[in-house]
Every structure is written in C-alpha cells, then in structure tokens.
Design goal:
- The chain contains 5 helices and 9 strands, in the order H-E-H-E-H-E-E-H-E-E-E-H-E-E.
- With about 180 residues, the chain is an alpha/beta fold.
- The protein has one domain (about 5-175): Vaccinia Virus protein VP39 (Rossmann fold).
- The longest helix is centred in the middle third of the chain and has 14 residues, at about 95-105.
- The chain starts with a helix and ends with a strand.
- The model has no long low-confidence stretch (mean pLDDT about 95).
Length: about 180
C-alpha cells in the first residue's frame, strides 16, 4: 500500500485511543478507511456515490457511512482526525477555499488533518477508467495560508512524493483549542 508511510504519520499524531476520524470522499473504504480501522480508528466516511458507500457499509458495518457532499457537512463531529485522500482535489479551487473553515469546525482540539492536492493553482481534466475526471488545485502558499487562518500548522508537506505514487500530500495539526 503506497499510502502506508503517510497514514503512519497521521496515526502517530492522533493522541487518543480509538480516535474518531472523518474520511472525506471515502469511496469504498479501501484502502484508507480499512487501514485506519485496522489501527483502531472509528471511521465516519462521507461520499456522494451511493454504490461506493454501499460497498463501504458492507465491508465495515460497525462504522458510520454518510451520503453527503463534503461542502455541506452539518450535524457531525468533532473528529480527532480528518483525511481527504484523493478526494478534496476534485473540488474547484473556490470550493477548496471554503473547505478550510469546515475542517476547522469539524476538528476536535488537537486534531490532525491530511489531504492530497495538486502542485499549482489551476484546473485540469484527466481520465479515470475512460471517463473524464476533474482536478482543481490552489498553490502551496495559499494552502499554507488557509491552514494557518483556520488554526492548523503544517507538520509535513511533500510535493509529488515518489514513494506515494506522485501524490502531493499535506499533514497538518490543529494549533489551538
């Protein structure tokens, strides 16, 4: 699993037993939620795809799976950890900016946030399984600014990590209560 080192860093910073973790854009729950569950986390997964959520529910029935748009999360939380692995960057840049106050609102004191992004401000259309797939990104300076404005400090950031399939990863921790 190419995400293992990043997930280990995320888990290491969760300071409570059986932490509550929000998996934003969880899909089927594999591999991210599965790995977190295997390491003692209690998962709340959100996704807009009902077929993918059905698979997550079938595989991990003791965890909470919600059909929701990540931009409209109410009535859940707080969470010790928030992870948006290969999901957050499917939002337009203007919607990504609006997510940081949502992350702050959903975070328990001392929470950890990890997400993947693009490397520069812009938008692109790629393909996945023959279908067009949107990607949006801010630039690194703006991500740092948004994290700081919303009470998070960058713990680790790697652009195009070769050990993680070229993913650009951000790991941040909440700085205040």
């Amino acid at each position: 699993m190419i995400e293992r080192a990043w997930l280990a860093a995320f888990l290491e910073r969760l300071a409570v037993p059986h932490p509550q973790v929000l998996d934003v854009g969880c899909g089927t729950g594999v591999p991210i939620a599965r790995h977190l569950i295997e390491n003692g986390c209690r998962i709340t997964g959100i996704d807009t795809s009902l077929p993918l959520l059905s698979r997550a529910k079938a595989s991990f029935p003791d965890h909470h799976w919600i059909a929701a748009d990540m931009r409209q999360l109410d009535g859940i939380g707080p969470f010790h950890g928030l992870i948006a692995w290969h999901s957050f960057f499917h939002l337009r840049p203007e919607d990504q900016r609006l997510m940081f106050p949502i992350f702050r609102r959903l975070a328990a004191p001392g929470a950890v946030l990890m997400f993947t992004s693009g490397t520069a401000l812009g938008e692109a259309i790629g393909t996945f399984e023959g279908q067009p797939l949107y990607h949006g990104s801010l630039d690194a300076c703006e991500y740092r600014q948004l994290l700081a404005e919303n009470g998070f400090s960058v713990v680790r950031h790697q652009q195009e990590d070769p050990a993680c399939g070229g993913a650009t990863v951000w790991l941040a921790a909440q700085t205040g209560c």
